Amino acid sequence: MIMSMSDLSSTPRTALRRHHERGRTDRDDLYAVLDSGLICHLGVIANGAPRVLPTGYGRRGDVLYLHGSSANATFMAGAGQEICVTVTHLDGVVCARSVFNHSMNYRSAMIFGVARLLTDPEERTAALRIITEHLAPGQWSYARQPSKKELAATSVLELSLAEASVKIRTGGPHDEPEDYAMDVWAGVVPVTAAFGEPEPDTDLRPGIAVPQHIRTRRG
Ligand SMILES: Cc1cc2nc3c(=O)[nH]c(=O)nc-3n(C[C@H](O)[C@H](O)[C@H](O)COP(=O)(O)OP(=O)(O)OC[C@H]3O[C@@H](n4cnc5c(N)ncnc54)[C@H](O)[C@@H]3O)c2cc1C
């Protein structure tokens, strides 16, 4: 079910404390952070200890889907449990006049909730399609669809975006007033992640061109 939600929640655990002015309440900012990322970090308690697992994801409306191997104990530990998912983009290294005031420009999101393990095959397939299309748009219908065995080997967790926070830092360093007189360079070194030229598989049969939907992703 696609839910429509308004502003981002402010709950005891999503309320930002330090630099709360960097928080965003517009849900579109959450979507933008999630939609421009490719991996998330899934935080779970497994066997009584915290684990953080990098994994792929996809979004539909106010629901996030994460997938992992059914044999992955850490991933499966999230089923029916409280989890925390983060997505982070590093946009720049902020060099200040003092080492203390060095910082980073970023966009990040943190989501809390109880994860639901998708057991219905149709629901799971639909979620896998969303995850695949998020990673590589156009590939779900271009590549072979998953077999029953492949589907059984893949588990999907569903997480509502009801309880989430977004924090964004932009701009230059914030130095101490007396430090602005120093002869020390200060500024931002931008960091970007970009798609490069597609590299064909060494086992690719001759004559198969890079499809349009992959070619156009470059840059
Ligand atoms: C790339 C990157 C690098 C960072 N480097 C540092 C660093 O070196 N040192 C440092 O102190 N901080 C760093 N931060 C900021 C850090 O993530 C926290 O925002 C910060 O520690 C403030 O914590 P707090 O005590 O205010 O809140 P906490 O008590 O830690 O968090 C309260 C709530 O605020 C929300 N929240 C907090 N941080 C974020 C976030 N980043 N994104 C979305 N929601 C958030 C969550 O809902 C969280 O439950 C970095 C962030 C990013 C994205």
SSE sequence, one letter per element: EHEEEHEEEHHHEEEH
Compounds present? flavin-adenine dinucleotide
Helical fraction equals: 10-25%
Mean pLDDT: 94
Give the CA-CA distance, first to last residue.
34 Å
- The beta-strand count equals 10
- Quick one: overall form? globular
Helix count, DSSP H or I runs of 4 or more residues? 6
Q: Uncertain spans, ≥5 residues at pLDDT below 50?
A: none
Largest sheet: 10 strands, antiparallel
The helix-and-strand class reads alpha+beta
Strand content: 25-35%
Fold and architecture overview:
It is a single chain. The chain is of the alpha+beta class and 219 residues long. 19% of the residues lie in helices and 34% in strands. It contains six helices and ten strands. The chain has helices at residues 27-35, 73-76, 121-135, 139-142, 148-152, 212-215, and strands at 23-24, 39-46, 49-60, 63-69, 82-95, 103-114, 116-117, 154-160, 163-169, 187-190. Strands 1, 2, 3, 4, 5, 6, 7, 8, 9 and 10 form a ten-stranded antiparallel β-sheet that branches. A hairpin with a 2-residue loop joins strand 3 (49-60) and strand 4 (63-69). The two termini are 34 Å apart. The mean pLDDT is 94. The structure holds flavin-adenine dinucleotide. Flavin-adenine dinucleotide is lined by residues 13-14, 16-18, 88, 90, 104, 106, 108-110, 165-167.
